[in-house]
Amino acid sequence: MREVANKLFKDEFRLTTHQKAEHVLGKIARTRDALAVIPSEHAEEFTSLLLHIDRKNEELIIDELNPAHGSRRVAEGQPFFCLGRSDGVYVGFQSHLIQAVDWEGYGALRIAYPETTYYLQRRSYYRVLVNAGDAGQVELQRRGARPVQGQCHDLSGSGMRILLTSPTDFALTQGEYIPLVRFDLDGVELASEAQVRFVGAIRSNKVRQPVRPVGIQFLNMTPAFEQRIMNYVQHRDRQLLREGRT
């Protein structure tokens, strides 16, 4: 979660009105999704729940931290970060402890209402299964080797997993630089540089053209390429949520 926090707390992801922030925090409270609590002076992370929002009195109520010694960490008066999710998108804010309280018969923490709330609109951390027909054949052009082709299995804002036919000359290797990966997405041709992040085992040797999963990370994406990918990921993610498959 620290990796998410390092990306989330930037001005570009700042919610600009109190109404938007309260709406997002309210969703987290209603769905009772886990809330990660990260004391800024400690490496350990803890979990909690957002139980109650009181905008008028500028405070929130969160459940006691798990593991239990986390409540002592935040009681030391240091600021801490909270990370949750609203509709699958990361939400974060900074706060500090006001006091430990009882809430509906259980231990809880009264914390300061955040001055600023951040909302990671770009879903680069989410990977979605690509719908059949949405993505055309993927081609990887290589240095000193023949191009290889495959089908996109899933896609995120930072890369994709491909079911790839095995090269006939030189095997793909983890860390290999790909000068060009090219594919169609919703009828639009896209191209970028990439790097091989992992090479999986062959799925089956019993078929005529066995495939293996290969993960790539996009490099030096153009703004148009990145926006096209993110639009698809967000649209597909909402579609899968409606279908109840995520």
What does this molecule look like?
This protein has about 250 residues and is α+β, with helices and mostly antiparallel strands. It has two domains: about 120 residues, Pnp Oxidase, Chain A (Roll), CATH 2.30.110; about 120 residues, predicted glycosyltransferase like domains (Thrombin, subunit H), CATH 2.40.10.220. About 20% of the residues lie in helices and about 45% in strands. The chain is built from four helices and 15 strands. The strands form two sheets. Strands 6-7-3-2-1-4-5-8 form an eight-stranded antiparallel sheet, sandwiched between helices. Strands 10-11-12-15-14-13 form a six-stranded antiparallel beta barrel. β2 and β3 form a beta hairpin. The longest helix has 21 residues. The chain is elongated and about 65 Å long. The protein starts with a helix and ends with a helix. The relative contact order is 0.12. The model has no long low-confidence stretch (mean pLDDT about 85). GO terms for molecular function: cyclic-di-GMP binding; transferase activity. Pfam families: PilZ (PF07238), PilZN (PF07317).
Largest sheet: 8 strands, antiparallel
Specify the CATH class of the largest domain: Mainly Beta
E-strand count: 15
CATH architecture of the largest domain: Roll
General form: elongated
Q: Tell me the structural class.
A: alpha+beta
**Rg, Cα atoms, Å:** 22 Å
Q: What is the assigned CATH homologous superfamily of the largest domain?
A: Electron Transport, Fmn-binding Protein, Chain A
N-to-C CA distance: 20 Å
Tally of DSSP helical segments: 4
Low-confidence spans: pLDDT under 50, at least 5 residues? Answer: none
Strand percentage, roughly? Answer: 35-45%
As for the number of domains, it is 2
Helix coverage percent:
10-25%
Which fold name corresponds to the CATH topology of the largest domain? Pnp Oxidase, Chain A
- The succession of helices and strands, N to C, reads HHEEEHEEEEEEEEEEEEH
Overall pLDDT, averaged? 86
Order of strands, main sheet, comes to 6-7-3-2-1-4-5-8
Assembly state (oligomeric): single chain
